[in-house]
Write a structure and sequence with these properties.
Order of helices and strands: HHHHHEHEEEHEHEEEHEEHHHEHEHHH
Number of strands: 12
Largest sheet: 6 strands, mixed
Shape: flat
Distance between the termini: 83 Å
Strand content: 5-15%
Number of domains: 3
Number of helices: 16
Helix content: 40-55%
Length: about 475
């Protein structure tokens, strides 16, 4: 009787504490969202005013003159509701405790592109046709830059507060094995998330057993008692998936007390950097390797940019191409262009083009030889064009043909592909995308006589995390690292 009474009292006190705390959290979230809306509206308004000032009150654009302000400021009546609605629709007012800033940045870019198009369309529909296009362009630029800066500063401020113990969420971890310890380690490393582990429940370890900053506080059978006597926001299950009956029982008990349950699958190590979940009817299927370039739009955009940049590259470097071709021809007998089989997209063979930098050698020997820093096969011109990467310029034509991309993992010869696929885990993943003239591994120094395993790690990161901005970053880094490890 006393035991039942104790449980009822604990349950009542716990529910009272949780209701009070949930109410405070909801109020804080509402306050923060209201603050975000007001801040966004302020930034949008300031962006338009600043754009108007630069356009009409200065001569930075070559023609400045005063003009009636009200005509231009009045469209804020249209802009503000459109942008705030878009911010809400794209989830920019949802809590982002565990999301990367990259995702928020992409959403802000989408909102500003769609918002600008919507404003232009509305101006046309209400027959305001002489609205300054320069002002709209400046407004789009400023609203994007200022919004990104605002969200970044707020995110860092919230992360700092959480790392200092403010606005924390209390976590109970069920399972104190290797997976549970790994999870706790990640929580400690990423204190900005604001998760505090109150303890672990495990049937195989004694109560009091230390795990990093926490300890085992009971067995799995103590789950309900712990929930009723502590503030628990989430229960994280790090139990092996083979114990599905135990997991089902734990979830039922957790949800019975209105607490959220989340599962860390023990096969998470096979997940990609950005897990992609698909549904086959009512069965979820996890795509083990998410590849952004499988998306038709992404693929088309990258191919379009490749063609444009390859044409521009050929035109700009045409004097170098001609001079190099002449120098290769007159200083060493043999063909000007060196062709060699490489493995490309979807393991298809193609002939890569380079200016010949070595003496003509036997085709069979060529398949298995790896160039070295003081390779005796290099010609006098060859040493220079290899060190300056001029020998790679004919690959612009590989890009036009569609065999290669400007940015991507470097392609390798069939012999070495067969060798490395058995020696280096996940080596073949790099062939999910077109190979490139330069890549993420190369700009980080992993080229020439360096670790193949590290090179592949960087290549896989590129495959899984491709974006147009990522390509732009690699493009500019290529010039800063042009001569690193080149020989």
């Amino acid at each position: 009787m006393e035991h039942v009474l104790f449980e009822e009292v604990c349950k009542f006190l716990q529910e009272a504490c949780l209701k009070k705390r949930d109410k405070m959290i909801r109020e804080n979230q509402r306050f923060f969202n209201a603050f975000l809306v007001i801040t966004d509206m302020t930034i949008i308004t300031f962006s338009l005013i600043f754009a108007w000032y630069l356009r009409f009150e200065t001569d930075l654009l070559g023609f400045g003159y005063s003009i009636w302000k009200l005509k231009y400021y009045s469209i804020l009546i249209l802009i503000l509701p459109i942008y705030i609605f878009l911010y809400y629709s794209f989830g920019l007012y949802n809590p982002k405790r565990t999301e990367n800033f990259d995702l928020e940045l992409k959403q802000i870019l989408k909102v500003n592109v769609i918002g600008l198009l919507a404003v232009i369309t509305l101006l046309y529909l209400i027959n305001i046709q002489n609205y300054s296009r320069y002002l709209l362009a400046l407004f789009a630029l400023f609203s994007t830059v200022f919004s990104i800066s605002e969200r970044f500063v707020l995110r860092e401020l919230l992360r700092f507060m959480r790392s200092k113990g403010r606005n924390v969420r209390y976590i109970l971890v069920v399972g104190a094995g290797e997976l549970g310890e790994k999870f706790a380690s990640k929580i400690r490393e990423n204190s900005y998330i604001g998760y505090h582990i109150i303890g672990f429940l495990d049937d195989n370890l004694e109560v009091g057993h230390k795990i990093l900053d926490s300890e085992v506080i009971g067995t799995i059978g103590d789950l309900e008692k712990v929930i009723m006597t502590n503030i628990v926001d989430k229960v994280i299950l790090t139990v092996s998936s083979r114990h599905y009956e135990v997991i089902e029982n734990i979830v039922d008990k957790v949800e019975k007390h209105g607490v959220k349950a989340e599962i860390v699958p023990d096969y998470y190590r096979y997940f990609p950097a950005k897990p992609c979940l698909e549904m086959v009817d009512d069965i979820p299927v996890i795509n083990i390797r998410y590849v952004p370039l499988d998306n038709y739009f992404n693929k088309t955009l990258k191919r379009f940019v490749d063609i444009i940049l390859a044409l521009v590259g050929i035109i700009i470097t045409s004097p170098i191409l001609i001079i190099t071709a002449v120098m290769v021809k007159i200083t060493s007998p043999g063909p000007v262009i060196f062709k060699q089989n490489r493995v490309g997209l979807n393991k298809k063979l193609f002939s890569i083009y380079k200016f010949r930098s070595m003496k003509v050698q036997d085709k069979e020997q060529e398949k298995y030889s790896w160039s070295t820093r003081k390779d005796p096969r290099k010609t006098r011109v060859g040493s220079f064009i290899r060190k300056t990467n001029i020998d790679e310029l004919p690959q612009f034509f590989n890009i036009l043909k569609g065999d290669m991309s400007l940015i991507g993992p470097r392609p390798e010869r069939p012999y070495f592909v067969e060798k490395f696929r058995d020696e280096i885990p996940k080596y073949m993943v790099k062939h999910y995308v077109r190979p490139g003239m330069t890549g993420w591994a190369q700009v980080n120094g992993w080229r020439g006589n360096t670790s193949i395993a590290e090179r592949v790690r960087y290549d896989i990161y590129y495959v899984e995390n491709w974006s147009f901005l990522f390509d732009v970053k690699i493009f500019f880094m290529t010039f800063l690292n042009a001569f690193k490890n080149a020989y």
